Amino acid sequence: MQKISFESDYRTGAHPDILRRLTETNSESLDAYGSDIYSESAKQKIRKACDCDDAEVYFLSGGTQTNLIVISSLLKSYEGVIAADTGHISIHEAGAIEHHGHKVLPLEHHDGKIEAESLDSYIKDFYADENHEHMVFPGMAYISHPTENGTLYSKKELEDISAICRKHNIYLYMDGARLGYGLMSRQTDVTLPDIARLCDAFYIGGTKVGALCGEALVFRKSVMPKHFMTIIKQHGALLAKGRLNGIQFDTLFTDNLYFRISKNAIDTAEMLKEVLREKGFRFAWESPTNQQFVILENEYMKSISDKVGFSFWEKYDDNHTVVRFATSWSTKAEDVEKLKSIL
Amino acid sequence: MQKISFESDYRTGAHPDILRRLTETNSESLDAYGSDIYSESAKQKIRKACDCDDAEVYFLSGGTQTNLIVISSLLKSYEGVIAADTGHISIHEAGAIEHHGHKVLPLEHHDGKIEAESLDSYIKDFYADENHEHMVFPGMAYISHPTENGTLYSKKELEDISAICRKHNIYLYMDGARLGYGLMSRQTDVTLPDIARLCDAFYIGGTKVGALCGEALVFRKSVMPKHFMTIIKQHGALLAKGRLNGIQFDTLFTDNLYFRISKNAIDTAEMLKEVLREKGFRFAWESPTNQQFVILENEYMKSISDKVGFSFWEKYDDNHTVVRFATSWSTKAEDVEKLKSIL
Amino acid sequence: MQKISFESDYRTGAHPDILRRLTETNSESLDAYGSDIYSESAKQKIRKACDCDDAEVYFLSGGTQTNLIVISSLLKSYEGVIAADTGHISIHEAGAIEHHGHKVLPLEHHDGKIEAESLDSYIKDFYADENHEHMVFPGMAYISHPTENGTLYSKKELEDISAICRKHNIYLYMDGARLGYGLMSRQTDVTLPDIARLCDAFYIGGTKVGALCGEALVFRKSVMPKHFMTIIKQHGALLAKGRLNGIQFDTLFTDNLYFRISKNAIDTAEMLKEVLREKGFRFAWESPTNQQFVILENEYMKSISDKVGFSFWEKYDDNHTVVRFATSWSTKAEDVEKLKSIL
Amino acid sequence: MQKISFESDYRTGAHPDILRRLTETNSESLDAYGSDIYSESAKQKIRKACDCDDAEVYFLSGGTQTNLIVISSLLKSYEGVIAADTGHISIHEAGAIEHHGHKVLPLEHHDGKIEAESLDSYIKDFYADENHEHMVFPGMAYISHPTENGTLYSKKELEDISAICRKHNIYLYMDGARLGYGLMSRQTDVTLPDIARLCDAFYIGGTKVGALCGEALVFRKSVMPKHFMTIIKQHGALLAKGRLNGIQFDTLFTDNLYFRISKNAIDTAEMLKEVLREKGFRFAWESPTNQQFVILENEYMKSISDKVGFSFWEKYDDNHTVVRFATSWSTKAEDVEKLKSIL
After folding, report:
1. A301, A317, A298, A299: which is closest to A309 by C-alpha?
2. Which among B19, B231, B239 has CB closest to A22?
3. Class in CATH terms, A16-252
4. Strands, sheet with A104-107, edge to edge from the N-terminal-most edge strand
5. CB A79: neighbour CB atoms within 10 A?
6. Which fold has domain A4-10+257-342?
7. pLDDT category of residue B1 using cuts at 50, 70 and 90
8. Cis, bond preceding B146 (omega within 30 deg of 0)
9. A78 touches chain D (CB under 8 A)
10. Quick one: which H or E segment has residue C45?
11. What is the DSSP string of D279-314?
C-alpha cells in the first residue's frame, strides 16, 4: 500500500481547473508583468469577494515573499512588527524580515494568537518608557489567520485588535497563507469582507489552497505604497509572465472555487478529527481548521511513519512528540479511511 | 486581422509539453521546497548538459531574483559588480542590486558587451588608485549572453574575460535569461559546457525560453554559498511547491526540448531578418539571436503599430526610433509571413 | 545646593590628561583615517595590555556603531546573534542589528547574563529541529561585560561560554562599553588577557570610561574581516581625523590611566553602596561594578529628584520603581557625601 | 627642514578656541545624546546664521555618515540620488549609499558640477521612458559645494537647480564638507541663507573646517524625517556625549569663528595660486577655493615629494600627474613662503 500523505497542504499540484485554464489560454499573446486581462479579471473578482471596490490587489509568488515586501514597504526604518512568538515571520522565514531591516517584536502567543489587550499594553509600555527613542517603534501588528497552530480569531477578537491598531496608528496585517481554510471552518464567524474592513493589508493564500504558487495581496487603497510594482521588481518578485498568477486566481475566484476546495479540506479534517478521537489520541490543542496537532508516543510514532506521512511539530516530553496531520483541498475521504485502518 | 506579436519573448504561456507534464504529475504527493524527484531529475539532466558532474543547480523564479541573490550572496559587503552600462542589472532591475547593498560598476559597452581589456584596465586602475580603500572593490564581472542588444560573446571573448577574472580573483557570472537563443544562434561557437567551464555561476533562462517561470542557476561547486537554500528563503524566493520549477526544467531538458524550441526562435528570427532586409529597413546593429533592432521613421512606426506589436528601444533622432522585434520558441513562420504583408 | 549627578557615566567630558594631550599635539600635521602615529602607538599599547601581540585593533566612535559593524561584518546573511534578552543590542540600539540585516536571538537572562548551558541547548535544539534550514542560524554569541545590570561573568563562566562557542564554531563577541569598571571590580577574577584569549572580538569602552568618544575594537587576528577599513567607511564610521580616537586611547593606555580612573568609579561605587545600605535601601540585585540598582518608593523617589540625579530603570510594582545610581571615572568622594546628606 | 603639508585640510587638530571651550566645560554634568545646553545653543546660532528660524539642526560625526543617513532616510526604497559622476558619494564613500540600499545615478560633471539643464533632461527622459517602472526613480539631487574639484555653484546656478528639483518634486541636498571655504571664496555670490532657502537639506562641514570631527546637518523643517534621533541611533551615529559636537559648533558659530578661519584658508590659497602661477605651473582647472589642482611633470613631482606634502589626484598623461595642494583654516602664510622656496 502506498504511503498516505498528511504532512502538509502543499504536496500535490494545482486544482485541475487551474491547469485546464492555463492550457486553454496558453497560446494567447498577453501583456507582461501583471498587466494581462486575466490578472485584471482576477483582481476584480477578489475586490468583489472582499466587498471592497477600491481595494488594491497584487499577485506575488509565496508567503515569505509577500510578508517581507509588505512589511518592509509599509514600515519606516525605525519601526518593527509585533507578532506572536510562534508567528511564521518570528521563526520560520529564515530571518527574512530582519534581512530586510526590521525587527520582529515578539508577543507571547495563546494558541498561536496574540491578544488585543497584550498588544495594547505593549504599545503603551513602549511609549511610557523614557528610553523609547533608543528602541524599535511598533509600526505594525502581524497576525496569521488561521495561525500556525491552526487556530482562528473570532470576529470580536479581530475587531478588538483592529481597534487597538487604529487607536495607536499602527498597521494591521494578516498573513492568510491558509485563509480559505479559516473562512470555511465550521467554527468561524469571520468573513472575507470582515477581514478587508478590519485589516490594512492581508493576503489570500494560493500556494496552500489549490494553486501551484501565488498569493493575492490586498491593500486598503489609502495604505498601498506608491510605485508598488517597482518595489516588487526591486525584490526580484515581479514575474514577467504575470499571467501565471493571474489565471490561477481568476480560476480560484470563479464560481467560488476557492471556497469550495477549501471546504473539502475542512470536511476531511473533521473526518480526521473524528478518527483521531475515536482512536483515543490526545490533541495538543483544539484546531478548527485543516491542521490537527496530536501527541504521539515516540515508539508508536516511529512504527506508523512508513505508512503515513505527518510532520514533526515539537517535542512534548522525553517520550512524546507533537505531530501535525494536515488535510488540503485535494485530500480524499478515502485517504482518511486508509489512515483509520493504519492507526 | 488580429494584431501579430513581436514585442517580446514572454507573451505566450509555456511549451505544451510542460503543461502536459504538470498535468500528468499533478496528483502526485511530492516533497516540498525543491526536494522533489522532478527537481532532482532536472538538476541531473542539467549537470549532464553542462558536462559538469559536480555543478550545483538551484531553481529560482525570475531573472532579477536570480541576479540579486547570486550577486549579494557571493560578494563581500565592500564589493561591487562590474557590468556593461547597458546591462540588465545596470538599468532595468529597479535598483535591485543596490537595494541589496551592492554597487553596479558600469563599464562602457560595445554592442552590449564588455571587453576583456577594459575589464582588466578597470581592475588594475582600481588597485593603482591610492584611495582605493575608500572605493567599492570590484568583486565580480556580470555579463549577459545573449546581451540586452541580442549580441553574443565569442568563445575567445569569453575565455579572455574568464582569464582576466581568474587573474584578479573575482567571480564571473553570466545572466542567461535568453541563453537558449544564444546557444542555438547560427553564429556562435559557444556551448553550454564552455560556459560551465568558464563561469563561476550562470543561469539558464526558462521564463523567456518556453517556461511559465523559472531559471536554472548553476554554480561551480566550490563557489556555491553555504546554506544556499536558507539564503533563497530569506529573499522570499523559495517556492513551497518546488515541483513547479522542477517539472518545467525536467521537461525542457528531456529530449533536448530546450534546444529544439530555442532553434525555432532563431529560425524565425532569420526569416524576420530576411524580410526586414528585403523591405529595406536599416538595422540599428547586427544581432545573431532572436531580438532584432530596426530604425523606423516615426510616422511609419505609428502607422503600423495597430497591426503589429514591437517594442520601443530608444530614440534614434528626432524623426526616427529604434524598435525591437523579438521572436520566441512559439513564433510561427506564418507570423513572419503576416508581418511581411504588413510592412 | 547644586544637584548632584548619578544618572549615568557619560555626563562629564574627558579625563583632563586626554584634553591636555589633544592640545599638546593639536598643531601637528598627522596622517588621516587612523594612520597617524598616535593611533599606531595606542594600538601597540592595547595589544600589550591584552598580552596578545597579533591582535588587530580599530578605533570606532560609539558602542552601537561598534556592535553593528562587528556583527554585520562577521555574520553570514543567514546567521543571527544570540544575546541575553536584556542585552543592549536586544533592546536599546533602536534595532541597529536588524537594520543591518541580522536577527538578535534572545536568550533568557540571569542577572543580565547568559549561561553556557542555555547557549549550548539553544544551538543543539536549533540543529535538531527538522525545519532549521527555514530558520536563522546561530552565528555568534554576544555578551556584555559588565552587563547592562552591572553584573560580571566569572572567569569560569567566560571559559565555559567560550568553549561552547568554539565547540559549535560560532563567534564570541564581548561588548565592553564599561569594561574598565568590570576589570577593576573588587569581585572579579577576569583580566584583559583572559578576555583576549577567550573572545573572538571585543571592545574596550572609552565613551563611558573617560573619553569624549571612542571604543577600541580588538579582533583575534584570524577573525578580522578583510578590508575592514573599507567596511568602517561604508558604515559612515571612519573619522578623517583618526587622531581624535588615537590620542584618547594612547593617553588612556599610558601609565595605566584607563585602569586607574576605572578604579575611581569602583571606589566611589563601594562608598555609594555603603551609604545606600546604611540608609536601609533595598537593592534590586547585587552589582559589583559602577552601576547600582535600588528599589525606591515612588513618593520618596519624587521627593529627592530635584536634589539628586539618577535614572529610571524599570517599574517594580505600583508603588515602587527600580532606579540606577551610576558612578564614573569622575565621581568624587564628596559627591557621595552630599548624596548621603540628601537621602 | 620639516616637510610642509598641503595634502589635505584635515591633518591638524581643532581650532584652539574649540579645545579651550572643551576644557572649560569639561567638568560640567551635561545631558547626553545631544540634549545638552551647548548643542542647543549651537543649533540656535546656526539657525540664525542661516536666517531660518525653524530649520532643524542635527550634529553628526563625519561626511559619509551624514550623506548616507540623509539620503537613506529621505528616499523611498525605489528612489536613487542623482550626483555628478565625480561626486563624493559616486566614488569615494566605499559604496555607502548603495550599502544602504540606494543607487547613485551619475550625471556627467562639468568641473565637478552638475547642470540644471542636464538634471532636467535626465528626469524628463526617465519619465518618458516606457520602461521607467523597471528603473530607479530619481528622488534627490546631490551637489557638493565646493565640489570635489574645488569649484563653486553661482547663485544663479543654485537657483536653477533648485527650481528643477521643485518642479519635479525631488529633494535637493548639498554636501558642505568644505562649505566655509565656499562661503568665504572671493568669487562667490552665494550666502548661507541662500543655501538654506534653496536646499531641502545640507550640512555645514566641521571636520575640514577647524573641528576635530562633526558636521552640522540642516533640514528645512517640513522635510525632516520623523524620529530622526532614532534613525541616527540605528545607524550607530548617535554620540552619547553629544557635547563633543555641540561645543565644537557652538564655538565655531560664536563671533563668526567659522567664517574667520575659513577666510584664512582662502587667503592662503590665493597666495598659493600666486606662487604657483609665478613659478609657471599649469592648473588642471580653475578653483576659487582652498583646493588647487596643478599638473606636474612626474619626475619633478617625485623630486619635491619629500619636502612638500600634496596629494595625488589623477593621471594626466604618461608623463604628467594632476596633484592637489590644499590649504586650510590652520595654514600659515609662512607655509606658502616655504613652498615657494622649494618649488
Report:
1. A301
2. B19
3. alpha beta
4. A56-60, A215-219, A201-205, A171-175, A137-144, A79-84, A104-107
5. 22
6. Aspartate Aminotransferase, domain 1 (3.90.1150)
7. low
8. yes
9. yes
10. helix C37-49
11. TTPEESS--SSSEEEEEEEHHHHHHHTTTEE-EEEE
Contact criterion met (CB < 8 Å) for A133 and D233: yes
Record: contact C78-B227, CB cut-off 8 A: yes
* Closest residue to D94, CB basis, from B78, B93, B312: B78
Would you say residue D1 has pLDDT above 90? Answer: no
Of the candidates A26, A96, A240, the beta carbon closest to that of B10 is on A240
pTM score: 0.97
Residue C308's DSSP bridge partners are C4
User: Contact at 8 Å (CB) between D219 and D55?
Assistant: yes
C104 touches chain A (CB under 8 A): yes
pLDDT tens-digit profile, chain C (343 residues) = 689 999 999 999 999 999 999 999 999 999 999 999 999 999 999 999 999 999 999 999 999 999 999 999 999 999 999 999 999 999 999 999 999 999 999 999 999 999 999 999 999 999 999 999 999 999 999 999 999 999 999 999 999 999 999 999 999 999 999 999 999 999 999 999 999 999 999 999 999 999 999 999 999 999 999 999 999 999 999 999 999 999 999 999 999 999 999 999 999 999 999 999 999 999 999 999 999 999 999 999 999 999 999 999 999 999 999 999 999 999 999 999 999 999 9
- The rounded distance, in Å, linking the Cα atoms of D228 and D73 is 8
Nearest to B236 by CA among A67, D134, A242: A67
Q: Give the integer Cα–Cα distance in Å for B94 and B68.
A: 11
Cell numbers standing for residue C218? 580588538
CA-nearest residue to A95 within chain C is C136
Quote the longest CA-to-CA distance of chain A.
65
Write down the domain spans for chain C. 4-10+258-342, 16-252
Complex ipTM more than 0.85, yes or no: yes
Q: And the C-alpha cell for D82?
A: 542623482
Question: Does D72 contact A76 at a Cβ distance shorter than 8 Å?
Answer: no
For range A226-237, the mean pLDDT: 98
* DSSP state for residue D53 in the 8-state scheme: T
Answer whether D137 sits within 8 Å of A227, measured CB to CB: yes
Pick the CATH number of C4-10+258-342 from 3.90.1150.10, 3.40.50.150, 3.40.50.1000, 3.40.1280.10: 3.90.1150.10
Return the pLDDT at A125. Answer: 95
A228 near B CB under 8 A: no
CB-side exposure of C171: number of CA atoms within 13 Å?
A: 26
Nearest CA distance, A14 vs chain B (angstrom): 7
